[in-house]
Amino acid sequence: GVQYGQLGTDVTLPCPGVRASSPVQWRRAGATALPEGSAIQQGSLVLPRASLAFMGTYSCHSEDGGLLHTVSLRLGHLPGVPFVSCRASDYENFSCSWTSSVETFLPTRYITTYRKKSLTGEEKWRNKNGHVGLCLQDPSRPGTCTVHRSEFWSSYRLNITEVNPLGFSYRLLDVTMQAIIKPDPPEGLVVEPIPLAPRRLHVSWKYPSSWPKEPHFQLRFRLQYRPVIHRSWSVVETVNLSEVITDAFAGLEHVVQVSAKDFLDAGNWSEWSAEARATPVRDLVSTASEETTTDARLESLAEEPSQAPNPEPINRSDPLEKMAVLVSLGIFAFFILAAVLVITILIWLRVRKHGKDKTKPNFLVAASHLKALPSESGCR
């Protein structure tokens, strides 16, 4: 048979059917001697402070060498309190997973049950002595169990008990659906460039297949994207199943992912979906400009001699110096124009004055002739 013992403690292997006073011999298969410090007491073999090196097959024999009993010794630890976490990928079921807190080195099994808490929120549990539901374990997914047809407004107490040949240990965990809801990632992510739109990408996706199809269970979504050569993400939130990215970089490949969360903000965001990639179309104007520039450079390189020196002197003048010269010439031209304008005005005033002086004497001569004429009364 098999006997289990706890590491670090004294382990006693009995030899059934042997009187305490009868002499017996103990042997270990595959070894010439028993572990150091072992002793035979009243027909039983005592192994002090057992370690993993003590494991093996032991046999007790009569004084004449006849086989009396064989036992296989396995050593390990008592179970520890398991680590447990629960998650609901929809509003109809939730699953719990666990890991052992201690490596026991022994065969281990788990008992997984639950009780539903009363809807009134009282501290005591309804029907304490009543039905206990099973959190069903899936052999294809070790370390997980599922509660089917759970109620959204109810709370549950999970009992995950770890059992091995040396004993058992358990953890109680209270969960509510609102707190543990976490959808699966959205599916069917597609990213496509938009024709004639250099900075735009059209992104679409579908609800996760595990999410209920009822219209009152809605999701909202979070979209993250970046050029492949960049490290920082841009994030956009939406309630739609598609989105148009308007600030993509033309001609650069972009990576896009999407996650989901309950529309009313219950629970947590899902994990990010698988990546999808696309490249926005290049701007036709900039592309043509780049091609023209490239062609011009190639033509200039073809026309230039490969190693011949340039006979024209190199212009090393400072641009600021050129600007100063232009400003000086402008100021000089302004003063020239102003001087010409002043001279023109003076000449015009002088000519006008001279014309007035010539007109005035003729007027005075005419007036003197009028005075010299005899009046009408004198002639009579």
From TrEMBL:
Residues 8-74 form the Ig-like domain. InterPro entries: FN3_dom, FN3_sf, Hematopoietin_rcpt_L_F3_CS, Ig-like_dom, Ig-like_dom_sf, Ig-like_fold, IL11/IL27_subunit_beta. Keywords: Disulfide bond, Glycoprotein, Immunoglobulin domain, Membrane, Receptor, Repeat, Signal, Transmembrane, Transmembrane helix. Residues 185-282 form the Fibronectin type-III domain. It is a single-pass type I membrane protein. One of its GO terms (molecular function) is cytokine receptor activity. SUPFAM superfamilies: Fibronectin type III (SSF49265), Immunoglobulin (SSF48726). Gene3D superfamilies: Immunoglobulins. It is found in: Membrane. The chain crosses the membrane at residues 323-349. One of its GO terms (cellular component) is membrane. PANTHER family: INTERLEUKIN-27 SUBUNIT BETA. Belongs to the type I cytokine receptor family. Type 3 subfamily. This is I11RA protein. It comes from Oenanthe oenanthe (Northern wheatear). The gene is Il11ra1.
